[in-house]
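Here's what a typical entry looks like (Fas apoptotic inhibitory molecule 1):
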Amino acid sequence: MPRSDLPAPRLQSSPPYSLEKMTDLVAVWDVALSDGVHKIEFEHGTTSGKRVVYVDGKEEIRKEWMFKLVGKETFCVGASKMKATINIDAVSGFAYEYTLEINGKSLKKYMENRSKTTNTWVLHLDGEDFRVVLEKDTMDVWCNGKKMETAGEFVDDGTETHFSIGNHDCYIKAVSSGKRKEGIIHTLIVDNREIPEIPE
């Protein structure tokens, strides 16, 4: 007989996927791209042959009853549709190793190369956090996942790439370090104050 003194069960809205269903979750990676940090999750059912890839909680690939338990799954990540591949390799017996490649490079190599080709700043304006990324090879500027409209300008000691965040004037100043190994130094200026760069 039900007891009336117990509180009624609370219903809660569920996320786009439920963690209870992800019993075969074997790997999770966080990948920093210009448009933001993306979470990649991989389910591998070694008894059912299931493979499921989630990017930012959204199911990208689902395969059931795969008889071959090793192999690879390829998909796209982020606004720039970066190619990503999860490699599934047998280590020994029924143990498997999962590695992520971004644009054909191991995640480690990709991130090392990315730190050479981008600068990233995080700042707090008007009660909101902003992540600004400069792609040095194209001089594209991204802010919270959106490619910004910019205007380049030559100045006495280098260049300035101007853009706005809300009603805040911003620019990235590029000046030569004078040292060959260091190359060009990029500095973000917002409302005439320098923002420290964060390592990624």
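The domain at 115-195 is CATH 2.40.128.180 (Lipocalin).

More examples are in the samples folder.
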